[in-house]
Write a structure and sequence with these properties.
- It is built from four helices and 18 strands.
- It is α+β, with helices and mostly antiparallel strands.
- It has a five-stranded mixed sheet, with no helix packed on it.
- A hairpin with a 4-residue loop joins β17 and β18.
- α2 packs parallel to α4.
- The chain starts with a strand and ends in a 21-residue tail after the last helix.
Length: 287
């Protein structure tokens, strides 16, 4: 599809049925509407999502959807003219074509136009967005992002509000695709770490790496290194004060989160440490 042409084939013969031309550049994703089999959406390197009437073999709408390649598109199974898209501009977007626009375009002699409306919802991701997928029922939509070694995560949005309701981040490398089970009970993701991960589709909790709990020895070493970094003194010259402070940390079992905040304070990134209650989880949680 890198020539920008959507090719249609009949089943079960796989005989060519026609071609849809309009994209300038390659295609990344296509999706038929589950509520209207005559509607097909395509996402391409020309930064657009295009919607086609495959019965008439014509383009209906062009949505200038993103600031870079659009890598993925999917239709809501609940709302007939709602679609989701994602792209290299690190954005997830929900679009809704108005009923008035649909009537004006699809009636005999109708006038279709380029969609210039703002997205219904937008989500900013830290890395490239590779796939979006609506859950059965249409209440949720998932999007996955990532780059090599950088925050590979599956994010789940609530369609009605556009807000993030869950984050799932157990891949070690970029998750490239996601899919829901037919009943929505399971969400699967597959990534460049050669793993397929399964999540509870109806769950509400995040599932992100938390790291392990530092040992007493590790906590003491943390503080000793920080004091040396802040003062510029060597371990030997600062041994007494560092040892005393380290023993204090061990004796009071200061959580790792608080030590990391102390690190920022010692390095001058925080002018005053203040209360850590709003920055750290309860002490029985990992940080």
């Amino acid at each position: 599809c890198w020539d920008g042409v959507v090719r249609l084939f009949g089943l079960p013969s796989f005989e060519p049925q026609g071609e849809l031309r309009g994209h300038v550049g390659g295609l990344y994703s296509i999706a038929f509407s589950p509520l209207d089999g005559s509607l097909l959406a395509s996402a391409g390197a020309d930064r657009s999502v295009r919607i086609w009437d495959v019965a008439k073999m014509e383009m209906l709408w062009t949505i200038r959807a993103h600031g870079d390649h659009v890598t993925t598109v999917d239709w809501s199974p609940l709302e007939p003219m709602t679609i989701a898209s994602g792209g290299w501009d690190r954005k997830f977007r929900l679009w809704e074509i108005s009923s008035a626009e649909v009537v004006a375009c699809r009636q005999p002699g109708g006038n279709c136009s380029q969609i210039t409306e703002v997205p219904r919802a937008t989500g900013r991701h830290p890395q490239l967005v590779w796939k979006v997928a609506f859950a059965p029922g249409g209440r949720l939509v998932a999007a996955c992002h990532g780059a090599v070694g950088q925050s590979p995560t599956v994010v789940i949005y609530e369609v009605a509000s556009g807000r993030v309701v869950r984050r799932l981040g157990r891949h070690k490398d970029t998750p490239l695709t996601i899919a829901w089970a037919a009943d929505g009970a399971i969400l699967a993701s597959a990534g460049m770490d050669n793993k397929v991960l399964l999540y509870e589709g109806h769950g509400t909790a995040d599932d992100l790496p938390q790291g392990d709990v530092d040992t007493d020895e590790e906590r003491a070493k943390w503080l000793q290194d920080l004091i040396e970094f802040r003062t510029g003194k060597t371990n030997q010259s600062n041994n007494v004060s560092a040892q005393t402070e380290a023993e204090t940390v061990v004796r009071h079992r200061v959580p790792s989160c608080h030590i990391r905040l102390l690190a920022a304070w010692l390095s001058g990134e925080l002018h005053a440490l203040g209360s850590t209650a709003s920055r750290c989880p309860p002490q029985n949680e990992n940080w």
